[in-house]
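Subject: Sanity check before I submit

Could someone independently write out the structure tokens for this chain? I want to compare against mine line by line before I put it in a report. The sequence has 310 residues.
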Amino acid sequence: MNCKNILKNWGLKFLGVGLLILILTKTNIGEIFKTVKQFNAFQILWIEILSLLIILSKSIRFKNILSLYNVTVSLQENILIYGSGMYLSTITPGRLGDFSKIFYLKHYTGCDYKKGLYINILDRLFDLTILLLTSLIGLFWLISPQKLLIPFAILIVLVSFIILFGKQLLKMILTKMLNVFKKRFNISINEINISKILNIKLVIPLLITIIPYALIYYQMIYISKITGFTINPFLLIGTLAIGNVFSLIPVSISGLGTREAVFVTLLSKAGLSATQAISLSLSFFLLNNFGIMVIGFIMFLILKPKFRNA
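---
Independent answer below. Compare away.
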């Protein structure tokens, strides 16, 4: 990678952070710190226990997907691999570090890069599916039911389109994603067996995905109650979901800036000021994202020496 590309990538990384700084200049920093300092040790510990459970439940889903593709890995290594991937995803734009699991799978199981890539794409698609569905909840509470008729009609058309042309659509999505990894893995879209990806057995990991997201949304509601902000829980869940969708755009680290912009915009509908919305968003970042990053980092350190000595 040449200097121009490096500067471009780092410029994108700090675009979201720049947005956060811009928002902070228009808010009361003292009030934000006052809100964050409300959490006591027990409350923080409980939230971090939930963060650990989020990692564990997602790793169970990952192991289920691996078993469908005949990839064998021990429960301990599976948890460490997934936790390491989540740590790396928190420090990379668009959570691209999550794809590090491809290399771990190759090392610990012998799984080839092509299969590892498919499995990681599937893993991400489950998260995206739940995020998009819960984002609709937020839209429902932000927009009157009458105004939602057109979006829901469009949704029905899209679902019908996916049912009829699912394989072609998935092939198009995979083509775009594979372009990112083309030089490293040298994989052609023609090598993809779509029937192995569109498998009825994948309903099970999709259902498992509900567990970590239920925990994440519970964390958000729990945090909002501690901070004393009265918000409709469905609106809060929808706002977080929409914020997390925007955080996938590779212009920031861990969604910093993009998530806050969504919170300020949407929670103003619930009567929250920009300062209150940012306080809530940053509280969630510190207690959820940062907690997952720390737990994942510990798992990363456990795996790293093994990787070096192999």
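---
OP: Matches mine. For the report I'm noting this point. The chain has one domain: 31-145+198-309.
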